[in-house]
Amino acid sequence: MKDAWIPYATRAVPRYTSYPTAADFTPETGAAAAMAWSAATQSEEAISAYLHVPFCDKLCWYCGCATSVPNGYRRVAEYVDLLLQ
User: Fold this and answer.
1) Most Cβ neighbours (<10 Å): which of 1, 4, 17, 18?
2) What is the tens place of the pLDDT at every residue in 30-54?
3) Which pTM value belongs to this model?
């Protein structure tokens, strides 16, 4: 790595360009906060949502996401069932 890049490579920055950013979420963030954020939008406004599915067929060497490779699909099915509730 070039020495000139080191200050940029060691800075703490959000991984995603989302709002609120991951740094805004704490153990205290819950349904009430999500409902407040949702209520703050206008009904005709387009919004985006990120839904993380923490299972992959294989781990990528470059990926920083919280994920796992299941040894079967029972856990995946249970996770999807919970999301659909």
Assistant:
1) 18
2) 888 878 878 888 778 777 777 778 8
3) 0.43
